[in-house]
Amino acid sequence: MASFPFAAPAFDGKSRRVVATSALAWIRQGWAIYAVDPGTWIAIMLGLLPILAALVLLPPIGHVLLIVLTPLLVGGMLFACRHAAREQAVRWRELFAGLRRNAPGLLALGGLYLGGVLLIAGALALSGDNLAGIRPEAARALSGARTLGPIGLPSLLVAAVLLLATGFAPALVLFNRLPPLRALKASVSASLKNLPALLLLALLGSLPCLVAALPFGLGFIFLGPVVAGSMYASYHDIFLGD
Questions:
Q1: How far is Cα 183 from Cα 235, in angstroms, rounded to an integer?
Q2: Which of 95, 108, 160, 191 is the most exposed place for a label (fewest CB within 10 A)?
Q3: Could you state, in order of their start, the residue ranges of all structural domains in the chain?
Q4: From the centroid of its chain, how far is CA 235?
């Protein structure tokens, strides 16, 4: 016989649809999360950026590790965001929270990311080989479609799905303990459902990110926490509600 209190039902990954202008609230919440403790956030970014730079400067193994480790690093940022959103202390060591909380799931998620990237790279390589064998006359006739031609529709679709899948999956694996594949599916579903809001968020964030990237990416020491805070706010709004 069941006893009280009943256990809460397991999270099933269902998301809700929000209005497009929710993106404005996510940005405001991202700034508020940064403003809770700017000094600690800057310390977190000063610890994160050298790790990213080292991986980028060590191809090809560094690039592979960067893709695989991205969910772990993003998870740490999101965990710190949750502390800030709950008015708890933001600690520098939360950057490595992903190692302490469901690291296997986050690493498996990174492995799936890597598989998607390799699939796109393989499609690009095959398309390049095929185009190399086209006669010059045909190549000139196809020159107007060169931006799509080397990519190919299948790889373009895989890239789009991978982009949608990466948005919420780390938070779902970290906070809700969803298996990686279910987290990816839930992220794609939620992203498609809320595409207007996510596109507006990307549009509003594109110029600040461009400016932050100009001085050797150092602007992300200040902008990175706001971006992470906006990501956390969008996850909380779409999957948990208020």
A1: 12
A2: 160
A3: 22-131+147-240
A4: 11
Quick check: pTM over 0.85? Answer: no
Could you give the angle at the alpha carbon of 35 between the alpha carbons of 33 and 41, nearest 5°? 75
For residue range 111-148, list pLDDT tens digits in order: 999 998 888 887 777 765 444 444 444 334 334 444 44
Are residues 92 and 43 in contact, defined by beta-carbon separation less than 8 angstroms? yes
Q: Supply the DSSP symbol for 150.
A: T
Helices (H) and strands (E) in the chain, counts: 10, 0
Compute the half-sphere exposure of residue 115: CA atoms within 13 Å on the CB side of its CA.
11
Q: Are 170 and 71 in contact (CB under 8 A)?
A: yes
Confirm if 119 and 88 have CB atoms less than 8 A apart.
Answer: no
Which helix (DSSP H) or strand (DSSP E) does residue 149 occupy? none
First and final C-alpha spacing in the chain: 33
